[in-house]
Amino acid sequence: MFFRDARIVAEELANRDIEVLYGGGNAGLMGAVASVYLEKGGKITGIIPEFMIDNGWAHPTLENMITVTDMRTRKQMLIRKADAIIALPGGPGTLEELSEAITMKQLGQITIPIVLLNTEGFFNPLLSFWDQMIRMNFMRPVHANMWSVITDPRQIIRALLNAPAWDPSAVGIAKI
Prior knowledge:
Blueprint: H1 2-15, E1 20-22, H2 28-39, E2 44-49, H3 50-54, E3 65-68, H4 71-81, E4 85-87, H5 92-106, E5 114-117, H6 124-135, E6 148-150, H7 156-161
Parallel strand pairs: 1-2, 2-3, 4-5, 5-6
Helix pairs in contact: 1-2
């Protein structure tokens, strides 16, 4: 189910000639996205730290690869260069990158759409946690507009196009 949805996201983006920027790896859901994207002739660029290349984790057929020194630089470059962020189910790195992007959006450092593909309810615990943060005044209710959630990967383009514009008055932190 997870890999199927990742492939559908890749097809939806490639069919519209949307350039993809990702972490440059060959494994997991993003490795699958990259492979489908390359098969369809889409433009995709990887940003990968040197140690991942040294360990053989770089996508083997990706021609557009930016090599950086560390994970922090990779994450900052991915977030700063993106026109939108799409989070597929993943591990701790996905959670860290998503958390940083949402923090940056909350503070007005980025204003781009953030879309979570909630395959099989993967992000439900995180969404509940964010709701708890709002209920307990660690985030303001308006901050729930920082992201969109979809369950059908075929909704990705619609979600990106219909993401609510980030309201500059929402910038800032909650007061407890």
